[in-house]
Every structure is written in C-alpha cells, then in structure tokens.
C-alpha cells in the first residue's frame, strides 16, 4: 500500500474507493463532501469543495511536458502578441533589438511561470483554491473574481476578433456573402453575428468537455500554428526577394534604444501577468515538476526565440516590399492572392485564436464562478454562464471603445500585479511551499486559512498601496515613462509589504490532499 507523499499516512482503501465513486457529476456536492470528510477525518465544507475544486490525484495526471509546450506554442503566437512585437519594430527597434527585448522577457517569464506552475503540481488545486492560502477561504473570491473579470471580457473580445477573420474567409470563398456584411444589428452585421455566434458555440462545446478536452485541443492546434506562422514568414521572405529590412526609418540609438528594449521586455512579462497567476489551473494535472520545466523551457525561451525570428522576418520583409509596417499577420494573410492558401491561413488563425481563448480567457472565469457557487455550478455549467456573459456584453462595442479598454480592462489588469506579489510572497517566502491542502476546504475558525471570518486582512492591506501605485503609473501622464514597469513595481511592493506585516506565529503544516482528491480528467 502506498503512503501519501507528504504525510506518510496510509489512506483507508474503502474511503478512497467510495470517494472515487462519489466524484461523479450526478452526485450532489453535499454527498460528495460527506464522503470526503469521512475519507480525510476533517469536515469538508460544501461551500468550498466540489468535483472541480477538489485536488487532483497524483496518479493519472496527463499533462506532460508536451502538453505544457503546446499551451505556449499557441499562446505565444497569438495575434495580439504579434501585434505587440511588430509594434516594437514600429517604435524603432531593429531585428536583434526585438530579439533581445523578447529574450529578456522570456527569461523572466520562464522563472515566474515555473514557480507558479510548481504550486499546482504540488497541491493539485486550481487558482481560486490556491489563493485561499494567502487571502483566506472567503477572501480568495477577491483574487479569483478579479482574474476572472479580466478574462471573461477578453474572451468576448478575442471571439469577436476571430469572427472578423472568419468573415474574411467566408467572403473569399463566397463573394456574394459580402451583402450580409453591410448592415448593423447592435453594432454587428448579419454575417458578423453569424460568425461570432458560430465561434462562440464551438468554444463552449469544447470547454463543456472539461480540461482534458482543452489539453487535447491545445495539442492538436500547437503544431498547426507553428507551421502556419513559419510558412507565412517564408512566403513574405520570398516576396521580399530573399532579404529583409533589419530596421525601419526611425531606428533608435543609445539610451532611447536600451530603454525601449527593457520596456519591451517588461511589457512582454506584463502581457502574461494574468497567466502567471492561474497557471496552476493547468499544472494541477501535470505529471511532475520536471514536465513543467521541460514544457516551459521549450515553450517560453525557445519558442519565443522562434516567435521573435518570425516577427523580424514579417515586419522587416513587408517593410522592404512597400515601406509599410504591418500590425499583425492577418494583414499579410489578407494579401495572399491564392484563394485556397488564403482560406487555409484563415483557418489556421481561427484555430489559433480559439486555442488562445480557451487557455487564457475561458478557464479562469470558469473556475472563478465554480468557486463562487460550488453547490450550484460545475465546470460545464460555469462555462456556459461565463460564455453567456462574454456574449451579452457585446464585446465588439467594448473593443471599439478606447476608454473601456484603457480604463476598465487596463485598471483591472493593473491590479493583477499586486495579487501575484501577495500570492508568491506568501507561498514561497513565508511558507516555503508548506500547505495544508485539507484545510483549504474547511470552515473551521481554527483552520489555517480561516484568518478573520475567512479573510486575511494582511493580504488585503498589502494590496492597497501596491494597487494605488499601479493605477497611478498606468493612468497619470507624467508617469508614462514608468508605465511599462508598472506590473513589476506593483508586484514587488505588494510582496515586500505582505512579507513585512505577515503573521510569523502561524503554524506551517505540510499536508497533502490525496484523501479528498479526484481524478484529474473530469
């Protein structure tokens, strides 16, 4: 008989079997918690625990190094990231300078994502449950809802942007459809509505089958994206006569150049400020820490080097052809003269955008809603609620309103740095990775993560000055030069303040959650 990895206690085989039978969507949360309580010898609360929030069993985890790599193969090559990196060319950075900026960001991301990923491997819990460690069993709602609110808005926006690509493809295949793209219903044409709703349904169907289906989709999409983007780069290279422009007309030099390089690297990390928070949503099903390291290594520094090379070829090649700077690969795709190749490229971009949306903008709000209503929502139901919100906010109107993007979504995004600072300082600096997983699901006032009425006031206090400074840097014009570094400044301040004011008298137990864990594929 195997012992649990951290406590050395032999679990009772009969309760482990009973929990396995109880962990089924048709079983009520109260009944599941009764079995989990019997299995663990603790009172497991139905307001904190269900089949989706429970820890994942170590045995049977399926996310390998390749699974982690394909996450980044999709996300790094997103259209938004290409727009950002090509923007560095427009700002005056040359080829090697863009690669250096992305390299600086990649090294930092590799370290941050590995630390964040290790948390998921060890505990097997999703981000809303992970944040209970530092914010308390109730205070964790603050962290998960902030992360989820940003994601659900971007889910709608990214779906809209993908629908624009679908419209281009449909009109190229059937030119007469152009007539359906001239009217406006709540800000979107008839063809636009049809394209948006179709992609909306496709994503909801995929997510309805849970994290295992997302893993399979990412594994399917990753190679397609890499091949497609490389092919587009080769095509533009040939069109440019076998050479590219290594810089634009406004090439930066000296101090301005280096400032822009490091600002670009910092912004590259800030773009992933959401992902470094909830990476444990994926690594909770990783087979080992080594799998996370391998996946991150090939997916972050190596993959980002390839990404940077493609960016340089695309931007430099197009600039040599006609002296213009493209905004994203979709600009190049629309110029492909062959209808078949144009359609194939559009399909690849659609596959990419769906892959990015699933991992970056769907999983977080689904877990946030499940954590908010664990007795009423499971992963599938929460997916439909999240997707519905992403539809009724009419995201195309949000995207076309700079004030919404800058002040609402930008303001929420600025708060994610302080969240990350508190979570990481608490887990790695204060607790040194020691977690009592069972008490993450307990409402006992004497529990390790109950704090004061379920909230940790020290975590909230640490966030206040960091959040205020982050918002000032983000929105005050006089502080514009510091804006690229706002995420680091805010995360650092929150981490330092929390570490200074934290309660050193806490008992730091290390207890795994195998006795209440469920299979990672559900």
TrEMBL record:
Q: Which domain of life is it from?
A: Bacteria
- Residue intervals passing through the bilayer: 66-92, 98-121, 142-165, 185-207, 219-238, 258-279, 300-319, 339-370, 382-399, 405-430, 459-479, 485-501
Spell out the protein name for this chain: Nitrate reductase
Membrane topology, record value: Multi-pass membrane protein
What CDD domains does this protein map onto? Answer: SLC-NCS1sbd_u1
PANTHER family, alphabetized: NCS1 FAMILY NUCLEOBASE:CATION SYMPORTER-1, NCS1 FAMILY PURINE/PYRIMIDINE TRANSPORTER
State its location(s): Membrane
Record lineage: Bacteria, Bacillati, Actinomycetota, Actinomycetes, Micrococcales
Q: Which GO terms describe its cellular component?
A: plasma membrane
What the entry lists under InterPro entries is as follows: Pur-cyt_permease, Uracil/uridine/allantoin_perm
Query: What molecular function does GO assign, one term?
Result: nucleobase transmembrane transporter activity
Q: In which family does this protein belong, per the annotation?
A: Belongs to the purine-cytosine permease (2.A.39) family.
Q: Which UniProt keywords apply?
A: Membrane, Transmembrane, Transmembrane helix
Q: State one Pfam family annotation.
A: Transp_cyt_pur
Kindly indicate where the leader peptide sits in this chain: none
């Amino acid at each position: 008989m195997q012992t649990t990895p951290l406590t050395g206690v032999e679990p009772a085989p009969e309760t482990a079997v009973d929990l396995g039978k109880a962990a089924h969507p048709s079983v009520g949360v109260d009944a599941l918690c009764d079995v989990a309580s019997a299995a663990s010898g603790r009172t497991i609360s139905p307001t904190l625990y269900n089949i989706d929030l429970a820890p994942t069993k170590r045995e049977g985890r399926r996310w390998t190094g390749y699974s982690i790599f394909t996450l980044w193969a999709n996300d790094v090559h997103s259209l938004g990231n290409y727009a950002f990196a090509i923007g560095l060319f427009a700002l005056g950075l040359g080829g090697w300078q863009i690669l250096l900026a992305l390299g600086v960001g990649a090294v930092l991301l590799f370290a941050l994502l590995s630390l964040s990923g290790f948390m998921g491997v060890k505990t097997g819990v999703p981000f809303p449950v992970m944040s209970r460690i530092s914010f308390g069993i109730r205070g964790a709602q603050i962290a998960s809802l902030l992360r989820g609110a940003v994601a659900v808005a971007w889910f709608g926006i990214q779906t809209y942007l993908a629908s624009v690509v679908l419209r281009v493809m449909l009109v190229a295949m059937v030119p007469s459809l152009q007539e359906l793209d001239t009217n406006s219903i709540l800000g979107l044409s008839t063809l636009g509505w049809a394209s948006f709703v179709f992609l909306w349904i496709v994503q909801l169907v995929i997510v309805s089958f849970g994290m295992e289906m997302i893993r399979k989709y990412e594994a399917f999409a990753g190679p397609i994206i890499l091949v497609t983007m490389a092919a587009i780069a080769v095509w533009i290279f040939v069109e440019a006569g076998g050479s590219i422009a290594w810089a634009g007309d406004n090439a930066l030099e000296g101090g301005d150049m280096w400032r822009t390089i490091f600002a670009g690297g910092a912004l590259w990390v800030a773009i992933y400020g959401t992902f470094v928070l909830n990476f444990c949503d994926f690594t909770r099903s990783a087979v080992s820490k080594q799998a996370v390291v391998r996946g991150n290594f090939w997916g972050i520094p190596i993959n980002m080097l390839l990404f940077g090379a493609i960016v340089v070829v695309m931007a430099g090649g197009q600039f040599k052809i006609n002296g213009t700077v493209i905004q994203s690969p979709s600009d190049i795709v629309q110029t492909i003269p062959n209808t078949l190749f144009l359609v194939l490229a559009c399909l690849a971009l659609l596959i990419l955008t769906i892959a990015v949306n699933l991992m970056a903008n769907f999983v977080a709000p689904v877990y946030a809603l499940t954590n908010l209503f664990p007795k009423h929502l499971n992963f599938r139901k929460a997916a439909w609620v999240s997707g519905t919100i992403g539809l009724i906010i009419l995201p195309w109107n949000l995207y076309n309103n700079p004030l919404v993007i800058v002040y609402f979504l930008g303001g929420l995004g600025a708060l994610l740095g302080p969240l990350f600072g508190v979570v990481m300082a608490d887990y790695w600096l204060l607790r040194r990775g020691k977690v009592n997983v069972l008490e993450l699901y307990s409402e006992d006032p004497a529990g390790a993560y109950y704090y004061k009425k379920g909230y940790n006031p020290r975590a909230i206090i640490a966030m206040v000055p960091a959040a205020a400074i982050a918002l000032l840097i983000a929105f005050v014009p006089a502080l514009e030069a510091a804006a690229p570094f706002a995420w680091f400044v805010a995360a650092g301040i929150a981490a330092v303040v929390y570490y200074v004011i934290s309660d050193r008298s806490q008992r730091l137990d290390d207890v795994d959650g195998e006795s209440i864990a469920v299979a990672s594929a559900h």
